[in-house]
Amino acid sequence: MTQLAIMTAQEIMDLIPNRFPICYIDYVDEMEPDQNIVATKNVTINESFFRGHFPGNPVMPGVLIIETLAQAASILILKSPSFYKKTAYLGAVKNAKFRGMVKPGDVMKLHIKMLKTRSRMGIVDAVATVNDKKVCSAELTFIVADREEKI
Q1: Residue in 114, 123, 121 with CA at minimum distance from that of residue 34
Q2: Which of 92, 96, 91, 26 is nearest to 61 (CA)?
Q3: Which InterPro entries does this one have (predicted)?
Q4: N or C: the chain end with fewer CB closer than 10 Å?
Q5: Partners of 117 in the beta sheet?
Q6: 101-123: per-residue pLDDT in tens?
């Protein structure tokens, strides 16, 4: 049985400011507002970064895995009633660990758990998996601001 997405790509783009070619979330599988989210990135050979990273051995750059986790986390944060219609900016990455490679054809699942929120910030535990194996983990801190406000 196929599970329907909780949020589609269009609904995601209505919430976060990222656009092609740097909007990496294909859909949200499940979400418990203010608690956790599971989202999906289908990694394809057509990704622009594979042309240079690395020719003959395409591997998703670690910084883009972190970016993908950050986008999933920003969806969770911005679905919170207190942060709705705002923008979440990545403020810190702690304890990032890379445990595997992400290659074309992989389906990367992004598991985000809210650890703490304050009036203008959020901290999450972020884990990316491929085939149920952890490929990356990190603690991400976000600063939340009004969409027009510069931080």
Answers
A1: 114
A2: 96
A3: FabA_FabZ, FabZ, HotDog_dom_sf
A4: N
A5: 122
A6: 999 999 999 999 999 999 899 99
Q: What does the domain layout of the chain look like in residue ranges?
A: 7-144
Return d(Cα 110, Cα 38) in angstroms, integer. 5
Q: Is the pLDDT of residue 50 over 80?
A: yes
The hierarchical CATH code for the domain 7-144 is 3.10.129.10
Average pLDDT over residues 39-52: 95
Structural tokens at position 68: 């993908």
Reported as a single tens digit per residue, the pLDDT across 53-89 is 988 999 999 999 999 999 999 999 999 888 888 999 9
- Report the distance separating Cα 115 and Cα 136, nearest Å: 18
Instruction: Indicate which residue of 34, 53, 61, 145 is catalytic.
Output: 53
The one-letter code for the residue type at 103 is: K
User: Is 111 tagged catalytic?
Assistant: no
Q: Looking up tokens 């289908």, which residue turns up?
A: 42
